[in-house]
Amino acid sequence: MDKYEYKIRSEEIKTLIAEGAYAEAAEIADTIDWRRVKSVMMLCTVSDLYKVNRRYEDAKNMLLLAYEKKPGGRTICYSLCELCIKTEEFVQAVNYYNEFTRVAPKDPERYILQYRLYEAQNVNLEERIGVLEELKKRDYREKWAYELAYLYHRVGLATRCVEECDELILWFGEGKYVIKAMELKMLHQPLSFSQQEAYDHRFDEYAEEGDAEYIEGSEEQDYGAQEAFEGQEQPLYEAFDNGEQEAHDLRQFLKSVRKYTDPDELTAEMLNELIDKIIVHAPDKSSGHRRQKIEIYYKAAGIIDIADNLCEAGDGRGQWRKERKTA
To answer: Are 141 and 223 in contact (CB under 8 A)?
Structure first.
């Protein structure tokens, strides 16, 4: 196959992926000798394509080719570990896990990999709980918060199970795992009034839209799985690095915001946790008043473009007023 023919087929694969025709895309991928392809991006894309089609050995082989060209890549190591767990090659899985923790020691995904390793090898529940508790300290996610609550339930720690369910419900408010947490809590004690009300109306929004997949849908996709293909122009292995980091940053920002819902004063701690940077523009006296524009960039959110805050010092006193931006 020459370069022109490869280009045509690779573009066809990308088009079929964008259309959700994963089986057809995989059939075309089977006609290409991927050992001759130099693009790590494309190899990772095809690996995820095979994974969506549950062809785990083929997916792993694509990643191994990518690994040869980019050894030590964080997401490649993660995905190789994950695939080795699925194919029950635990020695290799541990090796890739160790490499992942070496190249990304602070990435909370390491605890998810560790948990999956423990789960696949049937490690005792207490050790699995310890892993998820460590993950919670660094990154609070609803899927794993529910998993932690369920493990508490399984080992008979009813009080901690209920506490974890309550915390999950409070933090996330709605969604599949919130409903599951409510149902789990009900195994031990009744829901609060507000929780019961939310549970009783859990299908209302989706009944109006004719969408009942809210509860019945499949579990969260694996790292690098199907939802990553939808409308994705960016190479998958890069997209997962960037997307996961952005999601993590946003969760951390929302966690910080909830700590300061009604502050009495502005503290240095609040600024450090919530603000990325502040840009103070030069004063403008063209209107006869001294005005100075200040832009506040929030962490993970950037500028919240509702209105400009202008500090007007007409009589020497600091007076804040808001003006809408004009086109």
So the answer is: no
